[in-house]
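How it folds
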Amino acid sequence: MKRPMEPHEQDQLLVEAALRSRQGDFRAFDQLVCRHQSMVCTNCRYISGNEEDALDLAQEIFVKAYFNLKSFRGQSRFSTWLKRIKVNHCLNHVRKQQGKKHLNIEDPALIADERLHTKLRASAELEAREKRERIGAVLDTMSENLRVALIMRDLDGLSYQEIADELNLSLSAVKMRINRARQEFRALYTKE
């Protein structure tokens, strides 16, 4: 009796099919997008702070993945490779957003939107946005080595072994790096 395919094995077949059919046939890659869209959008929403930006970021990530698909060597799972693209893209987005004014109280769209929400909801949304911005700012001040490992573990939910494989580190080095990252994050987050 043939065993059912694991999700990462199905991904590998879809990647191979997508690479073979690069002449305008996007069905295999579309299936990959459907399989991983929820995971990508969730963290994009968390990092960007709003649904619209999250969807834009997710689309940009899948476009990057599509055009870089030939660089996927199959040494890790497709999901791990895609998460790495997502982490780097979202961190770059956070860096670009630093220094930009996120809230313009004279913005007509914001004024109209506020009329639709109660003060309590607006307050809760602002508080959540400020928290996300604060988390993003703290992550941005951390070294890339610590930041990437922390995001891969705590946001993406990768195992220590998957992170070790992806970053070409020993298991103990990954555990130590994540422990340091959590300590640094806590210290920076409580300091602000």
Confidence is low (pLDDT under 50) at residues 101-105, 109-114. Residues 139 and 147 are 6 Å apart (CA to CA).
